Amino acid sequence: MMTLIRKVLGFLILTLDRWFTPAVEVSRSPSVQAELDRKTGAWTLYHLEACPFCVKVRREMKRLAVTIPMKEINADPRNHEELMTGGKIDQVPCLRYCDDSGTEHWMYESADINAFLAKLGV
Ligand SMILES: N[C@@H](CCC(=O)N[C@@H](CS)C(=O)NCC(=O)O)C(=O)O
After folding, report:
1. Is-above-0.70 flag for pTM?
2. CA distance 15 to 50
3. Is the minimum distance from the CB of 93 to ligand 1 under 6 angstroms?
4. Residue 91 belongs to domain with CATH number
5. How far is the CA of 93 from the centre of ligand 1 (A)?
6. Quick check: is 49 in a domain?
7. 68 C-alpha vs ligand 1 centroid, how far in Å?
8. Could you report the per-residue pLDDT of 38-66, keeping only the tens digit for each?
């Protein structure tokens, strides 16, 4: 029963997300955008397709024109293993990123991830 409810909710979330997909609200010069893409292209967002918190982060990425490679943790057990090995907590969304000194971080909590994304290359 719970599985059915989860599936219906997931379908609704994804449908609403598709219908009300956010517009890109940030415009950068091609060189600044390319530099940002280069940086975030080395990061990973661990997510679940129909998780509302993951949808929230993916929508913010779209709005801010931030592209981050994504790994769906249910799509491949290796993705889930990576999350558990690196982040240590079985929760999505989780952003793996490297700071300017090359140190790797595993950031949880959709609100924290969105606040972090909002500060990137404005
Ligand atoms: N407060 C967290 C909640 C995230 C959350 O509850 N994610 C769920 C998926 S929708 C999760 O990973 N639950 C743990 C699990 O399924 O093992 C956020 O805003 O990111």
Report:
1. yes
2. 10
3. yes
4. 3.40.30.10
5. 7
6. yes
7. 19
8. 999 999 999 999 999 999 999 999 999 99
